[in-house]
């Protein structure tokens, strides 16, 4: 065998010493395929991560490619030692046809399958591997005959990648091929780039039609006006996937994707008088058809879009209920609902999930199910707007309200388009080389907590970029309409804006839509509806695990006090993580929780600390931002505390054990530098100890051996050996959550967490 040892492992050998025959023979050995591969790519990476990859694209798609239980074709090695060939996350599922080997020098030999998904090294290898495979496919595309063989086998999986892989969406769209009215031969397919090049200079949209039968689609009456105007239409006859994927594309290189069944037909030469004459001539026929069809259609009318066919059926693009149904039909709808604390509980409710599935299959049921107020809340989350002021019972049946809603939406679109054009004109003005950066703060840096940490990050950028950057900060911005005004003001003068609180999410989205040339970064957010928005947060629960263990070791009363801000998943994760860690080293531990419903209020935080101490707590934790709790601990004999977001040791020289430090500086620097370099892209970042975004204040006021033990635990989390949420773990009501050895995935378990774990003797907040 060619891969049994370091000496004979083919992928370890120099490419210059290997022939095509060697690669082909090795492929047949690992794939059990009798044919040579269509293509292969062999890479050796050295630098931050050292690894080797050898990937093959088979000539014929694997038989199980469309089965849920498909077998992955990529094997993972660590220093030539086989680890697994049954890990489906080594490459994304849309590349499940790829065969080959990944061999890392940096992963530990005892790495578990569970830790692979959270390992930073593996994540880097995965992203680099995706780009290599896509690059190789792009090379294939240069040979039209060879690429037609590829698309015959793998075009559909690539379409899946359009919505699975946002980071590489544009690259994948360049590789996908479509049937077209321009090509009468069904075997001949076109790219979106070729479509644009063939289009008239006045055309600014890509038109398509979706269905099950290519022949029926090509002969659809809906295409008559397009043929008459020499406008090419894409024929999408794989309805099961095309109906979901294509609307999700939205735009391709500034060209809108438009469904001919719902958009305006091309203009035809017909005077107003001629139109009225036709309408009058066919009035009786229209009335008869209307009477026969009844409620089965919204409207019957004459049209000039047909030339040979007597009639056709179209969708009403302006029907608000249809539009809302399309929103519920998006492929990532469950992910968005699960990530929002308002709607996360709904996806755990079988009746809601069933209703949602019915709407996705039959949009006409939306009106019926919209009497459920949960649907109104879900729509608000999916649209990124606050709909709590609307009457949930009116959404399904009040047509006047729907018309008003649609009119308001159209007016808003016109205004946003005008502002966008104005912004484009402004962008033509010569700009300086300086990157202009804006920061929006919830409080002032003097809180020595959350805002202080973000301000330190801003200073870090200035320190490293000097005169190349101009930074503007706005403090004490409330999470209401004030924030939208502040963000708008900054958007007019800056290249990139960081909005540093969860409550700024909707205002950030609104302003970003009006200023597409400005980059927006939202802290702790989860929505990125436009490609000029990024979201970022940190795995703070990893830090809570450390302080939980220290609390369990240091307490004398066995009572831990926890000051909590708001009952959102981030805070709930922290409470559960701290309690589980403390319980693991001290079975007698109790946790007392006081909810203050504020991020920053020194008076309330001090009162909460005193109340917890009165209940027997001799350890105080907090998920609020002032130093008040630390001061109370310092003034109370025998009480210890942990800093929040920054080192609060100055307020607790004899009481602070350590503190979770939010280190935003490197992230901010990288994102601002990306703007300067022209490489900024929309991303979602969720980093922790391993990446340095979560750090710790010095271990103090504790035995040296305990401090050393804590440092070792920090390293173990950073290296991926420890996950704070590892089973067996039950929920508070005793129901199983994680089995023995099972770790909680980021989604949906952690990002939508809305329950206490078993053992917490406190009522979950409503």
Features:
single chain, 766 residues, 27 helices, disordered N terminus, Ribosomal Protein S5, domain 2, 5 domains, six-stranded mixed beta sheet, Rossmann fold, 24 strands, six-stranded parallel beta sheet, alpha/beta
List the helices and strands and how they pair.
Layout: H1 20-31, E1 39-45, E2 51-57, E3 73-78, E4 81-84, E5 99-104, H2 113-116, H3 120-140, H4 144-164, H5 169-175, E6 179-180, H6 192-198, E7 205-210, H7 214-218, H8 224-228, E8 233-236, H9 239-249, E9 251-252, E10 255-259, H10 272-281, H11 283-293, H12 320-328, H13 333-339, H14 350-361, H15 366-369, H16 373-383, H17 399-427, E11 435-440, H18 450-465, E12 469-474, H19 481-491, E13 496-499, H20 505-514, E14 519-523, E15 533-538, H21 540-554, E16 559-564, H22 569-585, E17 590-595, H23 602-614, E18 619-622, H24 628-635, E19 640-645, E20 656-662, H25 665-677, E21 684-687, E22 694-696, H26 704-718, E23 729-730, E24 736-738, H27 746-750
Helix pairs in contact: 4-5, 4-9, 18-25, 19-20, 21-22, 21-26, 23-24
């Amino acid at each position: 065998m060619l891969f049994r040892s370091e000496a004979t492992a083919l992928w370890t050998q120099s490419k210059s010493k290997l022939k095509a025959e060697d690669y082909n023979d090795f492929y047949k050995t690992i794939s059990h395929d009798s044919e040579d591969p269509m293509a292969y790519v062999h890479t050796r990476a050295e630098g931050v991560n050292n690894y080797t990859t050898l990937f093959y694209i088979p000539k014929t798609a694997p038989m199980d490619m469309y089965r849920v239980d498909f077998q992955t074709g990529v094997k993972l090695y660590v220093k030539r030692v086989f680890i697994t060939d049954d890990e489906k996350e080594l490459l994304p599922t849309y590349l499940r046809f790829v065969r080959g080997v990944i061999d890392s020098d940096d992963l530990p030999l005892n790495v578990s399958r569970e830790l692979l998904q959270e390992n930073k090294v593996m994540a880097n290898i995965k992203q680099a591997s995706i780009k290599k495979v896509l690059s190789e496919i792009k090379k294939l595309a240069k040979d039209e005959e060879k690429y037609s063989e590829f698309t015959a086998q793998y075009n559909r999986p690539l379409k899946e990648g359009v919505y699975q892989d946002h980071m590489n969406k544009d690259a994948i769209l360049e590789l996908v091929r479509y049937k077209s009215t321009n090509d009468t031969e069904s075997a001949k397919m076109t790219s979106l780039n070729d479509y644009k090049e063939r289009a008239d200079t006045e055309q600014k949209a890509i038109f398509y039609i979706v269905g099950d039968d290519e022949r029926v689609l090509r002969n659809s009456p809906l295409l008559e006006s397009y043929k008459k105007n020499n406008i090419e239409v894409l024929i999408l006859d794989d309805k099961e996937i095309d109906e979901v994927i294509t609307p999700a594309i939205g735009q391709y290189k500034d060209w809108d994707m438009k469904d001919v069944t719902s958009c305006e037909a091309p203009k035809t030469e017909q005077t107003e008088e001629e139109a009225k004459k036709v309408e009058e001539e066919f009035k009786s026929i229209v009335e008869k058809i209307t009477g026969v069809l009844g409620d089965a259609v919204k409207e019957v009318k004459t049209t000039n879009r047909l030339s040979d066919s007597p009639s056709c059926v179209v969708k009403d693009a302006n029907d608000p209920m249809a539009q809302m149904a399309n929103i519920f039909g998006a492929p990532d709808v469950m992910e968005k609902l699960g990530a929002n604390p308002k709607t996360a509980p709904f996806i755990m409710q079988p009746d809601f999930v069933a209703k949602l599935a019915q709407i996705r299959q039959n949009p006409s049921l939306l009106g019926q199910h919209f009497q459920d107020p949960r649907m109104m809340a879900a729509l608000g989350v999916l649209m990124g707007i606050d709909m709590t002021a609307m009457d949930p019972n009116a959404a399904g049946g009040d047509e006047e309200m729907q018309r008003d809603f649609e009119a308001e939406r159209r007016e808003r679109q016109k205004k946003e388009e005008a502002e966008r054009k104005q912004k484009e004109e402004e962008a033509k003005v010569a700009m300086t080389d300086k990157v202009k950066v804006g920061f929006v703060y919830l409080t002032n840096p003097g809180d020595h907590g959350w805002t202080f940490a973000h301000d330190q990050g801003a200073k870090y950028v200035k320190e490293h970029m000097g005169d190349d950057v101009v930074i503007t900060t706005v403090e004490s911005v409330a999470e209401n309409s004030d924030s939208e005004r502040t963000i708008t003001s900054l958007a007019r003068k800056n290249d990139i804006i960081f909005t540093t609180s969860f409550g700024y999410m909707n205002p950030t989205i609104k302003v970003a839509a009006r200023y597409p040339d400005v980059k927006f970064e939202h802290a702790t957010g989860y929505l990125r509806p436009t490609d000029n928005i990024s979201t970022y947060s940190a795995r703070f629960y990893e830090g809570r695990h450390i302080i939980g263990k220290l609390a369990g070791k240091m307490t004398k009363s066995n009572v831990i006090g926890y000051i909590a801000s708001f009952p959102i998943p981030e805070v709930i994760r922290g409470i559960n993580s701290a309690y589980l860690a403390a319980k693991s080293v001290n079975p007698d531990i109790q946790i007392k929780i006081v909810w203050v419903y504020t991020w920053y209020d020194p008076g309330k935080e001090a009162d909460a600390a005193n109340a917890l101490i009165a209940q027997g707590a001799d350890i105080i934790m907090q998920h609020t931002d002032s130093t008040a709790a630390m001061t109370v601990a310092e003034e109370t004999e025998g009480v210890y505390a942990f800093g929040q977001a920054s080192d609060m040791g100055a307020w607790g020289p004899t009481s602070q054990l350590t503190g979770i430090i939010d280190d935003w500086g490197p992230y901010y620097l990288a994102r601002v530098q990306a703007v300067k370099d022209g490489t900024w892209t929309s991303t979602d970042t969720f980093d922790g100890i391993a990446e340095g975004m979560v750090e710790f204040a010095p271990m103090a006021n504790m035995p040296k051996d305990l401090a050393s033990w804590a440092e070792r635990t920090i390293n173990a989390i950073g290296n991926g050996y420890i996950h704070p949420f590892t089973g067996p773990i039950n929920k508070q009501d005793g129901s199983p959550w994680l089995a023995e050895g099972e770790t909680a995935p980021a989604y949906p378990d952690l990002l939508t967490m809305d329950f206490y774990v078993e053992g917490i003797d406190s009522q979950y907040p409503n």
